[in-house]
Amino acid sequence: MNDKIAVIGAGMMGGAIITSLLKSGYTGKIIAVDIQPEKLEEQKKLGVAVSTDSRKAAADADIIFICVKPTGVKTVLTQINSTVKGKLVISIAATVPLKYLKKFVPDAKIVRIMPNVAALVQASYTAYCCGENVTKKDKQKVKSLLNRMGVCEEVEEKYMDAVTALTGSGPGYIAVIIEALMYAGLKVGLPRNVALYGAAQTVLGTGKLVLDLQEHPAKVKDMVTTPGGTTIEAVYELEGSSIRQALMRAVEKASTKSKLIREELGVNSE
Length: 270
Ligand SMILES: NC(=O)c1ccc[n+]([C@@H]2O[C@H](COP(=O)([O-])OP(=O)(O)OC[C@H]3O[C@@H](n4cnc5c(N)ncnc54)[C@H](OP(=O)(O)O)[C@@H]3O)[C@@H](O)[C@H]2O)c1
What we know:
single chain, alpha/beta, Rossmann fold, ProC C-terminal domain-like fold, 2 domains, binds NADP nicotinamide-adenine-dinucleotide phosphate
């Protein structure tokens, strides 16, 4: 696959997408577009072409990623509108639905995705949903691109707010947990580097156990809990806390906020 790719908005996520494509050995041309010259300097150092002209970059590309904030999507789509007929336009903007995107680029094949920042290390979970005119062949192409960033899964669009809340924002919650575990390590006297490395690797390893063994997390918890041992002392403390409810509330709040932002953007009425 060596389609020309334009990434419009080379910030945190656009930059992560470009990095993951490069790390995966993508051989097609990549052009990074941004209105911030310093963002483009960073991309130039990675060896990709850069531009401040969205329209020209989209005209030159086969596939266009829209990686600006939800409030900036309309401007970008209006700029590239005449250049994307029959091309894949992939929006990563949270909250912005397919039908809104279609209004501005009706002739494009639109895909809405929700990756996360772990794309930087090719470990994103990316959910995607597609417009009606996206063919099986297009989907294969999209999947092969998204798999370079981690793993991907097609979902119905009605789940995108929930996915945004769980996996798009998820690295934020897990970072809080890693930080808390790191401080727990300090509390019991570990050197700082041992506490941080140990906490992060334990989160990574536990995720891998759940995925590779295809086990319910409760089974993993059971696997490490010996009668009268150390783990049950800790699990007892956790079960008496509101940690489960806190995480559920966090995801619920983020999902509700996603809907609110969409209302504030007025995308439903436009
Ligand atoms: N951050 C995450 O973890 C995450 C995860 C999943 C999805 N998303 C989605 O990803 C999108 C981007 O988020 P981000 O965190 O990467 O934002 P970001 O770091 O602010 O990056 C967006 C970049 O696009 C630039 N930009 C704005 N308007 C532009 C235009 N018309 N043409 C070219 N470039 C333009 C911005 O410049 P200015 O700063 O001057 O505006 C900025 O450099 C959002 O829609 C968000 O919902 C984010």
